[in-house]
Every structure is written in structure tokens, then in C-alpha cells.
């Protein structure tokens, strides 16, 4: 397994060109093209803002303003996370031709999915930055240094889960549908459209067990809240957990690797 | 000598799941607690059983065998796409597998980008692809279309591009699985030239194909895989010979079974009563008098059975019964006949039709100026052909006995089948015995071991 893991470095060029292909192919033929990477999160933000300021006003604590910005800090990374996992669940089956007919390192496929979605996440950041400037939200350099760390933790966590999801879906096709519902539940079980402080006392422990809670809170603390980044202990613990999950995911993927060519 | 590929006792077992596992769900598996049971196979299929072979460096090795015999599985094991269940395969050097051409192409992006990505997938670096790019495009003959998305390509263009990329990876070991069927004649020749070039440069080629001539011409050694086992290996001509003989034996069995079925159908048709005599509903012809209509008739059997054909056999050289004959072989059609009452007016006829239902030859005793005198009891009619000079193909036979005015006694329409085999792929129906003669400054030489030598 470790030998295979070391091999991953050799595939850098392949991963890079596949990510580029993925991005190019996604919007090929659409009028707005790459612009969609900006428009999608913007539209999402508009919908949530509309729902929580016009349709359901007063459902959020008054001290959190602007609420749209608060939500956006969580929704943007969540979109990266959830679409990575959803696409991963299908990626080995869709790439069946490669796995069956070409000597191809299958682990490249979920990694490419996660990375391509990460690029979309990055393309959404200018929108976020625009809003931050518009609302004159206070940003501090010391806090922003943590931003790449949060992204890295999320990357490890997502790839680890993507390995597990993609490998298992080959054997259980309906994991895909299960996953879609699970992710909806997961979204609401994460303090993204509500602040952690608004969660009921009893539910806090539960929320703390959710790894994405800490990612969401980290993003919110860095980008939205004022004051020093106080969540770093949780984040470092999550980093350790994510490394573990990454290795576990890779181990599982590696164990199931030989069955892919027969099952997809 | 050094081995480029060494396979030792390779066994590949595919698992089959009787629980219709692809429709089982994780939920139901968890609920019924059958997760572990469902994951364990309850039936296995041995795609390969203890196959061993060695391919010396720089040689060309052919693998032949029927469909489903395990050739492709073997190739995939060599390529490393699947792992053998037991046994091991070692390959020395960079491998490129031409198993499915253009497998990694993305339809939405241009041919140019696909060449780069495909090349990188096959193990080249970006710089290496860039260096070979022009050569690849030129080889694929796609200079004008290389910037169009691959989805707009015809299947031939797609395959050509896939082939061009794969062959320009410049592997030490090239694995080829029946991919030469792509492209037109010109492209096929180019591919063969490329293979020859590979051989010259001392590279190793492993070829899986049904083109037996190619194996005979190209390969230094051949392996015949049958039902997952290595049946024979060694000199390609010997291996191909044994393989072809085996295939003929099987075809023979298939044709014989087909004939038996046809005969059953024929026998099931009722013998008409005396009252119906002369009025045969399924009989569109009175054979002999209206030969044009005869070609419209479909297979079947009819007639008043005053004389009955009880048995039809084909005899080849040495009088062995069979259904597969070589072109130019002596063939005898034997009819067993019976007449319960003495009869003086009868004509025996034979017709041979090819797969397009074109009558290749037809005659009867009356046309051959023989006049019937008397027949009672049982007898045997032999229609002996000294040389059956037909081209390769499947042929159907009519046999009949009827009255001189055409009234059928027993007419068997297209019920019997035989096959003509030939090493020469000439066209048409009839092959006259022939030879080529040249005078003046014309020189030709026989293609070595090729299919050109008529014997």
C-alpha cells in the first residue's frame, strides 16, 4: 500500500492534465463557459439570502449580520465537499473503460474529481472576496494565514472520503442515491445556515462529532467573525483525523483495487 | 535467451454470484444480514487454467483461439490490468496495450488535447508527447481535424487516433488485441508496416487475433488457447494447422446438427393422401418444368412419396462422411432412396446453392440424358463430383426425385448444408483450376508462407 501511495507522486502530470481536461470539458458548449463557476455560487447565495431575509425573516440571531455573507462562508466549501463526494461515487463506473482496457491507476480518478471541484471552489472565492469588501467585513492577516490550512484539511478529508465512496459504490451501486440523501442531512447537521451558538445545548456534542462542523466554523471565524482565530485546536485535531481517514480510505481503495476491473 | 514476457501457471477465476448481486442493495444486505454471504462467490468460472508461456525478447508471439477461450483475459493479465488469481506474469520493459483504442478519449475536447492526455495516461511525459505529436497526427491522417472535438470524429478516425497514440508510446513490449480491423486497407498496411518496424528494432510483440494468416506470416511462435488452457504452442504453422482442424471439426458438428434438425422438420411434414395427389399446397413448383419459381421456394419437403429419399449424406475424399470440404476436393452426394411399388417414371435431381441463394449448379438424370426404366425396393444414388471447385462459403443442397413431367415424388428443398474451406480468399462462386504465367521482364515471387500459394 505504501509503495502504491508513493507511486501517486509519479502521477502528478496525469492528475494535472486530467483536472484541466475535466474543467475544460465541463463547460464546453455552454454560452457562459467558465463564467458558470462564478455564477453558480452567486445564484446559490441569492437564493439563500432571499429565503432567510424575505421569506423567513427573524429566524437567525440578530447579532449575525450580514447573514448572507455568513452563510456564504459555509456554503462555498460545502459545495466543494458535497459535489466531490457525489461525483466520486460515480467516477469509477464512468471511467470503467479506462480501468478495464488501459493500465490505469484508478485512484487518480477520485483525486481528480476532488481537485476539479477544489478549482471551482477557488473560482468562487473572488465572489466571496467581493462580498467581503462590499460589507467591509474585517479581515486580519494573522487569521488569513490559517485559510490554506483549513483548505488543506478539507482536501485531505474529502479525498479520504472520496476513496471510500468510489471504491464501495463499485460494489454497491445504490450507495450513490443513499449518499445524495445523506449529504442533505449532513448539510443541515452542520452549522452552515445557522451559527453554532444557535444550536440547542444537547445537540452540540453531536455537532462536534461532525468533522465538517469544524471546517465550517473555521471558515466562519477566519472570514466572518472578528477577533483571533480561536478554533485552531479543533482544526489541528481534525487535521490528524483527516490524515488518518485519508490513509484508511487509501487502504480500503487499495484492497478493493483488483476487483474494479471485474465489477465496473 | 532473455524473456520479455514470462507467464507461469496463470489461472484466472472469475466469480459469479447467483444472488443477482448487481441488483442487491447495501440496505437489503445489511437488513437481512447477508452482507458477508453475498460478498462470497457461490460459483466460479475458470477463464484461465494454468497457462504458462515465455516470449523471448525481440520475438513476435501470436495467441489464437476461439471466442471466449480466454485470450483477452490472458492479454489483460500480461498488461497488468487484471491480476491472475494464482500464478504470476512478469514483463520486462515498458508495456503498451492496444486493447481498446482511444479508451481514454474525452468526447468533448479536441483531438489535440486528447492526444496529450492519452499519451500521458500511457506513460509518456508531456514533453515526450509534444515531441511525437506531429508524427502521431500524421500517422492518424487527421491533420485537418486535430482541433475538432473528438465527438465529431467518425469511428474510423477515433480508432486511428487511438492507434497512433498507442503505437507512438514506443514500448518495449506491445500487446495487440484484435485491433487491426480498424481503418481501411491502406491504414491496415501502415499498421503492419509499423509492426514490422517494431520487429526490426528488436521489440517484443504479443498478438491476439483471429487473422490466422497474420500469425503465420508474422509470428515466430504461437500459442493456441482453448477453454482457458494452453492447448498447443510452438511453430505458428503447426499450431494454426491444429487449430484450424479443430475449428473444422466443430463446424462439422454444427452443420451435422443443423442437417439433423432440418431432416426432422422435413419428416414431420405429412405424406399427402392419394386424394390430394397432384395438388400440393406448399408446392410452388413442379420441379423441372418451372425452374424460375423454384428459386422462390423456401426450404421444406414435399411430394407424393411414390419414391422417397430416406437419407442424404456427403462423402469427401477417401469416402469419409462430412460437411466441411476443401475447395477442389472430390465430393459425393449420396441419396438413399426407396420405392414401395415398382415405378418406371422417375428422375433424380441435385441443386447446389450458395448463401445468397444463387444456384451454383443444378442437374438431373433427365437433363444428363438418362432415361428411367424401373425401380422397386431400396437403392442408393451417388452423385460424384471429381473436383468441387467452389470458393469458400456455406452451400445448401436440393435433392429431389420426381416424374419426367415434373410431378414431385419427394422434394427436399435447401435442407442440407455443407461448407467449403479454402486458404485462398478469392471471390465469386466458381474457381476454375488455374495458374499464372509470365514472360518478359516480369518478376513475381510467392509471398512467404502467405495465403497466396494455391496448392
Could you please describe the fold and organization of this structure?
The complex is a heterodimer of chains A (264) and B (455). Chain A has 264 residues and is mainly α. Chain A has helices at residues 2-7, 12-26, 36-55, 67-94, 96-101, 108-134, 141-144, 146-171, 175-188, 203-209, 211-223, 232-263. In chain A, helix 6 (108-134) packs antiparallel against helix 8 (146-171). The model of chain A has no long low-confidence stretch (mean pLDDT 87). Chain B is an alpha/beta fold. Chain B has two domains: 3-245, P-loop containing nucleotide triphosphate hydrolases (Rossmann fold, 3-Layer(aba) Sandwich), CATH 3.40.50; 274-421, Coagulation Factor XIII, Chain A, domain 1, CATH 2.70.50.60. Chain B has helices at residues 26-31, 35-39, 71-79, 111-121, 126-140, 155-167, 185-200, 212-218, 236-268, 291-294, and strands spanning 3-16, 43-56, 60-64, 86-91, 95-98, 173-177, 204-208, 221-226, 229-234, 300-302, 307-315, 324-326, 331-343, 347-354, 359-364, 375-385, 393-402, 408-421. In chain B, strand 14 (347-354) and strand 15 (359-364) form a beta hairpin. Chain B is elongated and about 90 Å long. Classes of the chains: A mainly alpha (264), B alpha/beta (455). Chain A binds chain B through residues 13-14, 17-18, 21, 24-25, 28-29, 97-104, 168, 171-175, 178, 258, 261-262, and chain B through 14-15, 22, 24-27, 29, 39, 76, 79-83, 95, 97, 99-100, 103-104, 106, 108-109, 113, 116-117, 120-122, 125-126, 149.
Write the layout of secondary structure elements.
The complex is a heterodimer of chains A (264) and B (455).
Chain A: H1 2-7, H2 12-26, H3 36-55, H4 67-94, H5 96-101, H6 108-134, H7 141-144, H8 146-171, H9 175-188, H10 203-209, H11 211-223, H12 232-263
Helix pairs in contact in A: 2-6, 3-4, 3-6, 4-6, 4-8, 4-9, 4-11, 6-8, 8-11, 8-12, 11-12
Chain B: E1 3-16, H1 26-31, H2 35-39, E2 43-56, E3 60-64, H3 71-79, E4 86-91, E5 95-98, H4 111-121, H5 126-140, H6 155-167, E6 173-177, H7 185-200, E7 204-208, H8 212-218, E8 221-226, E9 229-234, H9 236-268, H10 291-294, E10 300-302, E11 307-315, E12 324-326, E13 331-343, E14 347-354, E15 359-364, E16 375-385, E17 393-402, E18 408-421
Helix pairs in contact in B: 4-5, 4-6, 5-6
